[in-house]
Amino acid sequence: MADFTTWDAGGETINIRKDLRVPMRDGVELAADAYHGAEDKPRPALVALSPYGKELQAFALTMPPQRRPSPLWDGCIEAGDIARVVQEDYVHVIGDLRGSGGSGGEMIGNYNAGGVSLGQDAYDFIEWVAEQSWCDGNVGMIGISYFGSMQVLAAAERPPHLKAIFVSGGHFDFYETTYHGGIMWFMPRAAREGRGGDSGIAHTNVKSRMQEMYSREELQKLVEARLEDPDVAAWPNLVHVLRYPTNREFWFDIVLNHLDGEWYEERNPITLAPNIDIPVYLQIDQGRGWTVDGTIELFNVLKGPKRLDIGPYPPMQSRPFVEEHDTMFRWYDYWLKGIDNGVLDEPEVTVSVEGSRERVTGSQWPPKEVEYRSLYLRPRRKLSPEPELMGAEYAAPDGFYQVPLTVTDKVEILSWSTEPFEENTELIGTGAAHLFAEIDQDDTNFILRLWDTAPDGNRQLITTGYLKASHRELDERTTEGNPYHPHTRTVPVEPGTIEEYVLRLYPFANTFKPGHRLTVELSNDEPLADAHNALLPPDAFHLPVGRPVTHKIYRDAAHPSRLVLPFTTRNAAEKK
């Protein structure tokens, strides 16, 4: 039996139905809380589902929104502003996924890949909510990150009463969320283990999918094979996870599955998205390039009414999460309440352009016409629109020697810069970096970061690119300035040979103002602390290379190392 309590939110009464039990089709019950106004009437409902714990989300009633580096900032208070939802005359329903919080059942693997589909649970949850006396049968969803991904999984199941979704800051292609260019990212560890300031999953009964699929003997062989990677073997946390996996279920699965393929694709929300036929609003901020990439990919496969809004840098939002609510309620007022507020007359794509701080609109991504132009790496750390004419004997390669971070704290970085721009120069889209490089090992990381550098030396990160050298193969989707890597196998590098490596630069939008320079930095590890990483949790870095590597970057007439970037055309600018 659910408890019924009230809360005084600044003079407005909120009725709270605590610990509701929501039955799933297999008999498991999920726990939920429902918040709504004092007047006893049916209302549209906004559902929030995650494994992060409904009790944690209740902090939104008592904690003012805070940005990093507040010590009270918590990455998983992400279900939205409860008081605002109630004030807008919706029911806010916050539920715990199976195997977490107050819910029953077990969760197997991320998104329950291999177990009961969380999309299936979301279907049952939404249809139960729609039948309650306090709901008028119109249901939407709310919440960022994992909550956002759950919206897509739910919509793909087509529950009849789910009328629209509004997804902010979701993560979709889970391989791309955990391996950038084949390089492992440590951030997902925070979601599972609560490191980096994030509370983590409120797990009660979660299991490793790999431990469900394989025998102990088979797993031991897979672990030993993974430890043959010197990067993994040199990093204590990963050795610990692989040797003692029992209490690190999801992280263990991620570490063992370092290649893309069926394991990640089975319940990839982007794979399921063509099933979605309801209106979808996608919102993401710049600065977490890989998440922007997945959001755009999702937008492109959706068939129904849709919107894409790429907001300004920085990417990390307040906790409790309160941003984007104005836009969200306009969306839901139209689709759930039938209020004709003009949302259908607004453009499909809106992008905030860094530098100019303008918002440009269009019907697709990128929202303007672009032409790809090259900026070539030249001697004396210059970037130029003109290619190098001299051979390698005169345009000798740049180079750096990186010692493993297990024995040093110094990250070696090469950089190249343009001359100051003479007029506003706008770039919107994806990009590519073609690097002709020679290494003395059979693998390394290439980490590229593009900056907008002001005359006074201040700078802002524009985009990033990552590639593990053994993942350099390209696939048939690759076009000029828009490379793709399959990441389905590794191809070791022959030491001492010059190879062309093509890095995907994640989507971005920036105007370089007169006097500003474009600066590109290359390393095989990344600084553990700088102006950009200060916005992210302390362990939001990539797995360092576990052995010393010498890198030579050729940029001569025979080896045209270059950036290929999306410059908006004058015709496009004139059409604004």
UniProtKB/TrEMBL annotation:
<dbReference type="InterPro" id="IPR029058">
    <property type="entry name" value="AB_hydrolase_fold"/>
</dbReference>
<dbReference type="InterPro" id="IPR013736">
    <property type="entry name" value="Xaa-Pro_dipept_C"/>
</dbReference>
<dbReference type="GO" id="GO:0008239">
    <property type="term" value="F:dipeptidyl-peptidase activity"/>
</dbReference>
<feature type="domain" description="Xaa-Pro dipeptidyl-peptidase C-terminal">
    <location>
        <begin position="329"/>
        <end position="564"/>
    </location>
</feature>
<dbReference type="Pfam" id="PF08530">
    <property type="entry name" value="PepX_C"/>
</dbReference>
<dbReference type="InterPro" id="IPR000383">
    <property type="entry name" value="Xaa-Pro-like_dom"/>
</dbReference>
<keyword id="KW-0378">Hydrolase</keyword>
<dbReference type="Pfam" id="PF02129">
    <property type="entry name" value="Peptidase_S15"/>
</dbReference>
<dbReference type="InterPro" id="IPR008979">
    <property type="entry name" value="Galactose-bd-like_sf"/>
</dbReference>
<dbReference type="InterPro" id="IPR050585">
    <property type="entry name" value="Xaa-Pro_dipeptidyl-ppase/CocE"/>
</dbReference>
<dbReference type="InterPro" id="IPR005674">
    <property type="entry name" value="CocE/Ser_esterase"/>
</dbReference>
<protein>
    <submittedName>
        <fullName>Acyl esterase</fullName>
    </submittedName>
</protein>
